[in-house]
């Protein structure tokens, strides 16, 4: 799944904490100590320090992250980007005359019902969604066309139920505007761009605008609090391919903030929303706080080392720790939603957990969409409609839901701080090694992050092994062996005979 360049193995950021305390900064574990922050010497180039350290220190191969404990041992490497700093940005030498840009990455979604079918085509054309054997990879787009056309009518019903389209772009644009205002308020005149994976504005469109604006320093910020190779990783793989093919981007300085779930501002903002919603319950101390996160296939975690589960569990612990400081000690649980197909996904499942809580006598439930920072179909339809209905049928009498963060001021201000704190670690691509495109960025280049989270270059199993007959409203992915066989047979006849509706539509012009 992650096909990274093999000229030489990029440095693994998960072990960079062995160098950081001695070479660049002194950092302490956030929430575990008082006042730890990162400071880069004002008269020193961190890139030179990094290169000097690289020549003198040994490097270790990372093992897949499969547990919360293993993640905690390695998080110090990224804490330079997520721990609050007391450094005044206006005094830092890392801005200068550079034109700074921030690229927000997100999934994207159809804005109108007419957008649904082309959006689904882009989704299914991604090999990370439906993966064909390499021998049949040329069928990826024809298959995506077939599936998206068949899937569109039912999918339109789901989007119609939430207003005729996804609000994701509108909300992400608003977040980008507020982030830009916050950065300028903090004396960082940066432009903020939005790049979506499967719909407008596409990542490619954002990159073209970045080039037109002459950006010289770019901070890439996925709008996923917790890192997963299926979300942030997918967007970073796309960026990697774009960067390799463009000489302007090769020379542009960049860094990536891989995840930011443990930032103080984010945790505070989540706790504020939960505390506010709890007040709507008559007996707020009896309310079960129900964290629902988007799921990923279990194999991603166990076989590929995806840190998502470990980061999610720590995130929930941090939020509850903040609530405990406010004397809020409600019972809580974490479950995973949006599973698709018969493969094993992260457990416990949200729907099964809701039923179980009802059987155990829980009568008040507050749902917290912990992995989502914007409202979209999985919050507005899956949680607000499907799970609420299931909860009421299961004996839950009072239901509440914490809204997504959106443009919550504390959250936006903290994102701005995260961007500012990453600026000292923005570095240039290696101009002398254009073939390998080897990045020199100490903390968080695209290639280094991909290598760090998939150190063994393992190909992920497909998230969907068979097509589900019917409709899964939330996940937008379904599959079925019978349908697959029928489609492959149809395509085989098209290829061998040179006739059929796919040729008439111009989908298979290569075989005319």
From TrEMBL:
List UniProt keywords, sorted A-Z. Answer: Chloroplast, Heme biosynthesis, Iron, Lyase, Plastid, Porphyrin biosynthesis
Cross-referenced InterPro entries, in alphabetical order?
A: Ferrochelatase (IPR001015), Ferrochelatase_AS (IPR019772), Ferrochelatase_C (IPR033644), Ferrochelatase_N (IPR033659)
Q: Name one GO cellular component term.
A: chloroplast
CDD domains referenced in this protein's UniProt entry, alphabetically: Ferrochelatase_C, Ferrochelatase_N
Q: Which GO terms describe its molecular function?
A: ferrochelatase activity
Which pathway does it operate in?
Porphyrin-containing compound metabolism; protoheme biosynthesis; protoheme from protoporphyrin-IX: step 1/1
GO annotation terms (biological process): heme biosynthetic process
- Where's it found, cell-wise? Plastid, Chloroplast
In the UniProt record, does the keyword Zinc occur? no
Task: Look up the domain of life of the source.
Answer: Eukaryota
Q: Which reaction does it catalyse?
A: heme b + 2 H(+) = protoporphyrin IX + Fe(2+)
Gene3D superfamilies xrefs: 3.40.50.1400
Family matches, as PROSITE patterns: FERROCHELATASE (PS00534)
- List the EC numbers from the record: 4.98.1.1
Q: What does this protein do?
A: Catalyzes the ferrous insertion into protoporphyrin IX.
Q: Which family does it belong to?
A: Belongs to the ferrochelatase family.
| Name this protein carries in UniProt | Ferrochelatase
Record organism: Lupinus albus
